[in-house]
Amino acid sequence: MSGLDRAKKAAAVAAATAAAAATALLTAPAAVAAPQPIVGGTTTTTTAYPFVMQITDASQKQFCGGTLVSPTKVVTAAHCMVGETTGSVRVVGGRTYLNGTNGTVGRVSRIWIHPGYTGTTKGDDVAVLTLSTSMPYTPAKYVSSSQTSVYAAGTTARILGWGTTSSGGSSSNQLRTATVPTVSDAGCASSYGSDFVQSDMVCAGKTSGGVDTCQGDSGGPLLIGGVLAGITSWGEGCAQAGYPGVYTRLTTFSDLVTTQVNS
Ligand code: ARG
């Protein structure tokens, strides 16, 4: 299944679920959980996480996240950049709120998309943007290729973004963050089968669900020990029990990213 098909399918499932929930409400106005931050989590600021960037269109409307890794380089997801050109995107730093006008708007002079990228469930979901001018914010460190032990099952990871606070819901005006445990590769494979490409992906989320990245969080950071270790990529719905979020396994792409950062 292609990433797009999966997204459409996820949207259809979300619509069906919402319809079922609405019907249920007519008869039993009981336990329908309120939508929660990122899904699950709390509000935060770009002052607390200065390397978290909004990826926007030319009108500064946010559609993905990104991470500043040097004054002029931003790591994001390949799937965020499909169909984009240097003129169609901006990188906005230092702007906690989607409706803000503060911070720094960076123009993009180059877009590198992993040459192997064909769809989120195939892997290679990484891109590096080069900015025309430097961002006045402290970049994040990112994992080296040898740091594969950061993904040990159960390790706490931090997710950040402006994405929807429930599957099919609306975006958060304020940057949000949450922590989720890293999931073992065996666990992720049992959730997603062959769509989980172990070399290129890592999963994170609670077995019971409830906390996850969601639509609009893509391209944003998964931090482990404060270091960029993953890129928000995909998942079945959002925050569903048994379906953790799937992140680009950055150790696999660290050397390629470094080549881009130094070019
Ligand atoms: N593909 C989504 C995006 O473009 C990110 C989805 C993450 N989903 C999840 N369940 N963690 O924003």
TrEMBL record:
It holds the Pfam family Trypsin. SUPFAM superfamilies: Trypsin-like serine proteases (SSF50494). It comes from Streptomyces djakartensis. GO terms for molecular function: peptidase activity. InterPro entries: Peptidase_S1, Peptidase_S1_PA, Peptidase_S1_PA_chymotrypsin, Peptidase_S1A, Trypsin_dom, TRYPSIN_HIS, TRYPSIN_SER. The lineage of its organism: Bacteria, Bacillati, Actinomycetota, Actinomycetes, Kitasatosporales. The keyword Endoplasmic reticulum does not apply. The keyword Mitochondrion does not apply. Keywords: Disulfide bond, Hydrolase, Protease, Serine protease, Signal. PROSITE patterns: TRYPSIN_DOM, TRYPSIN_HIS, TRYPSIN_SER. GO terms for biological process: proteolysis. Belongs to the peptidase S1 family. This is Serine protease. Residues 38-262 form the Peptidase S1 domain. Residues 1-33 form the signal peptide.
